[in-house]
Amino acid sequence: MTGRGRIYWPSGATYEGDICGGFLHGSGTFYGLDGSVYKGSWRMNIQHGMGTKTYPNSGIYEGLWKEGLQEGIGRYTWSNRNTYIGNWKAGKMSGRGVMKWENGDLFDGVWLDGLKHGSGYYKYADGAYYFGTWSRGLKDGRGIFYAAGSKLPKQKFSESVVCNDGAQSLCPASLMSSEGLRNKPLHKKRYSFDGWNTSSYFCRSGRISHRPVSFEGIWNLSDSAGSVLSQDSSLTLSSSSDEGQHKLQHDNVLVYEREYAQGILIMERTRSSDSGVKRKTKWHHKIQRKQPSGPGEAIHKGHKSYYLMLNLQLGIRYTVGKITPVPMREVRSSDFGPRARIQMYFPSKGSQFTPPHHSIDFFWKDYCPMVFRNLREMFKIDAADYMMSICGGDDLKELSSPGKSGSIFYLSQDERFVIKTLRKYELKILLKMLPKYYNHVGIYDNTLITKFFGLHTITIKGVRKVRFVVMGNMFCTGLHIHRRYDLKGSSQGRSTSKHNINENTTLKDLDLSYVFHLERSWRDSLFRQISLDCMFLESQCIIDYSMLLGLHFRAPEHLKALLECQHTLQNSSSSQANNSDEPSQDEVTVPPKGLLLVAHEPGSVSTMPGSHIRGSTLRASAVGDEEVDLILPGTGRLRVQLGVNMPAQAHRKLLHNEVPDSAEIDHFEVYDVVLYLGIIDILQEYDMTKKIEHAYKSLKFDPLSISTVEPKLYSKRFISFLEKVFPEQI
Fold first, then answer.
1. What is the pTM of this model?
2. Under 8 Å between Cβ of 105 and 229
3. Residue 674: closest CA among 480, 509, 416
């Protein structure tokens, strides 16, 4: 069947439109048995392209489709007249979009899997606004609430919707008028909803950026946080007289600075709207000037790393595509070392072996391709997913280096992989230790050591040579990482400046004020694996490695529980309690209730292996020593593994000056947290340079407090410090 035609199925479904080779292919209308109607483009029997579908529940979707699911720009109108316009992915609202409810509420911001997830603002029907961040549909992090009648800074809307002509602000009238919409044809090149040009809406944000957006110097509103759709009507201000209303709008309306944790308000303070506007406007301009070089910056054309990114993507696509069809086999000794490599020249015009490209000419080296191919298989990383994550249509994002090495970090758009530039000696060390590393990660599938997936070099003739290693991102999770720590066990220089600290700052040893209580069996497994990993690193004469620790704080009914520990009358017991830095098990009388462990169900959690995990599911005594999943109320269900999605209790002892009238009582804050941890920075040998550095620093500081010590002492000190961070419960 080819051409225009009509098909009737025995079930009652009907299709009328283009047919090609027996497939629904082209444009046509399908009338489903359930009463649904789809009118638009088809490809090989599947909705693909522009189309409109009316559902049995009277909902209507108008927009782009891909492989039978809504993907791209589209508009969905519910039967109750709620409307969403924006980006879709795999049939769900994902990316930048605007939702307007029938009651007049409106949200403009970032979505993920149908939930608000990222930065945005919520406009209430009474005229109040909240600017902040959301995580899985819940407010999470700091934000600003403007009561009805407040004066809003124009800059707040500069990153919002831009309508057809000029910088018209997004408003219900211009956005959501549905009159005559359904009678308008869909145009492939320009998709417009009642005068709202979606091409202009998305032109400023070609991709959703996950870098933080600061409204205040002390605030960071990252795109991985979240919100509850509850209207704060109790905080809206009103006045009955015209004079009072005028005064309200210009002088007395308060602006509320708020902080949420998983939808629960934990901090609020007020300020004058006028002074607040001036201060925020100033910071907005400052942030705008800093954005081009800020962390998490998408690399677009014109960026200093743009051609480097294109070369990297082209090289990885070439070598992974070349090695994947080769049959799997055991690695040989000849597969290791600097001579085991693929070398290729990529001229921009193309060659017999390479395709033409839009970058500059470059030389490409791929080290130990068979070894890293087997490592990716061992870590359950699919070759196609690997290439799509790094080399797909999306640009990489450049991160600033959190350490002293000066390395540049790139993050794939799906945040599964981190690409780090290496120095020449680091590349040599990795090649030297690769055989032992391969054996170690093959034997211990719960290893906490960084996962390596590829080692490459790009040489631009006469310009520069850049070396890269591709690693797994430890913080690739749907949960918001509220705190990050880099822990080495040393004390000299291991603190962070208190200025400009935000939730994306990587803190150090002396900044850590918490201890973490794990289930006993989990703690035993954790330190068993840490010891094995440290033994391996010690055998390779590696030092300067650290434990990267990420914390996700949960918010039960009360985010924190103050636990008071009554001292005994004995002076000795009192002295011991006062000198303790952590609470004993008896002192914890009110356990938090923000986490729940249940028996593991493979079908209820994501089966996609993460780029940083591979081990088995942990078991918990609370469910009969069975494998467990972690239930996060209002968020989801996660598989618990060593170093990944590990629930714990974080205890912080309050100083006496933080709690008034507490001379004889110790106070502790107890938080429910989810932990992510792994051992990073394993490419520094204890060579002659480090021995000289150790001798020099030992003259100025305590030799045990400096980072540079011999490998055996480094390993012992590292484990001892972590044992204090994760104390054993009595």
1. 0.64
2. yes
3. 480
